[in-house]
Amino acid sequence: MAQNRKPGVQVAWVNVTYSSVLLAVAALVLAVAVLLHFAFPEATNAGMQAANHFTLDILEKIAGNAEPTATTVAAGAQQAHFTNLDGTVRVKKANSSAWSKADYSVPLEKGDVVQTASEGLAKIVFTDGTNYTVEAGFAHRY
To answer: Are 105 and 91 in contact (CB under 8 A)?
Structure first.
């Protein structure tokens, strides 16, 4: 038998691309996620809901249009809610003498006062769909 090999060290090369590595890692992560889902379904669902809520909060903050969710505002109790808050905005509830910082989760009811500082702005939507803007340096009673 004749040998066609040359004497010395011979090296064989295998090309590995970044996309093939990323695809393999993604397949591995997916396989682990599926196994964890079947092994611990309640914990996996709770983790997915927490991740979804976290992602939505981040995206709403980036977009600048975070609105109150059903869990933060009592259904039926509100007559209006904030859709945009910029700068310093305060709210004085009708049954209180103290001012509190305006928040998307604060429902506005009859008799509440909204006050904006010189750099503040508040946009409010009523349940009938009416929009109202409290411009910088003003107060408005509902």
So the answer is: no
